[in-house]
Amino acid sequence: MSDAYLALEDGRVIEARGRAPGRTRGELVFTTAYTGYEESLTDPSYEEQVLTFSYPLIGNYGVREERFESDRVHPRAAIAHEFTDDAVEWLESENVPALDHIDTRDLVTSIREEGAMKCGIAVGEDVTPADAEAELEQCKGMSEHVDIGKRVSTVEHTTYGDGDTDVALVDCGAKMSIVDSLVERDASVHVLPYDTTSDDLAAVDPDLLFISNGPGDPANFEAAQELVEAHVGEVPIAGICLGQQVVARALGGTTEKMDFGHRGVNQPVRDLDTGKVVMTTQNHGYTVGEPGDELDVKQVNVNDGTAEGLANDDLDVITRQYHPEAHPGPHDSLGFFDDVLAMTGESRHVVADD
Fold first, then answer.
1. Of the listed 241, 262, 308, 327, which one is catalytic?
2. Which residue in 82, 135, 294, 325 is the catalytic one?
3. What is the pTM of this model?
4. Would you call 241 a catalytic residue per the annotation?
5. Which fold would CATH assign to domain 2-140?
6. What is the pLDDT of residues 227-260, one digit of tens each?
7. In the chain, what are the domain boundaries?
């Protein structure tokens, strides 16, 4: 064990138990998920953030690589009331600082009341509160990483599956479960870099353009927005999480940062057509403010009324703010992928090569 300190933007410095050493900084956020810590920690949407688990025990069912959503841990640090040794060994092998023996209930309450805040972390044998405060000061002087997509996206075109439907998945930080969900439904998924151009897309000639989830401000993903603008009406378009925000911006909508975001597996969403409420998995700090004239709000968050589903039937556009691939669960919204692929069945849309 070692010393650990968490310096918060509100002026507090919290002493903790150090589990995995290191010094870092980032935006402090929390997740309410009881399970799915492997999926959360490998979710690219947590890039450059410090993740606090509200559930008190993390690591109680071990660490299995087949549950990972990407090839590495993305948060800059992890905080819990208690980490098991399995979880600590994994985080240490990834060079991700970890600290526990913190009252995470109080920490989560602070984030809910004051919003996501910047923090500094120092974990090690000889660290002091001043070390954590120094990290915080560096964080205060940093602006949001505008090219964050480069940190989480694929470098080259990679294809998964050999089905009859060709899906161009623009990787802004995609979870692997999205790819798996499409492949399971007989699609060939072409995972493309976040800065894919129209010429690159034409080479794929997809039946469906899909914008993935990802970290940070959707305004930073200009190339993906330009793809949607250029090809809406020519090819069906879908989006998840950041993908919904990118699609909304491309079609005249606006996005805004939330106070503390939606992160967890217990977010209730109401479908406005049916009145049905489903529980969903979510991880985002931005949301669609105004959808614009081209998109209709189809689903809303029960707690705060934010847009959870957008659509334009005439243009073959459908998006979700939550994660219907459900890793971690619940599985209430898996039908989204069937609805998305159904858009490709009526007619063959060809992307213009211009």
1. 241
2. 325
3. 0.94
4. yes
5. Glucose Oxidase; domain 1 (3.50.30)
6. 999 999 999 999 999 999 999 999 999 999 999 9
7. 2-140, 149-342
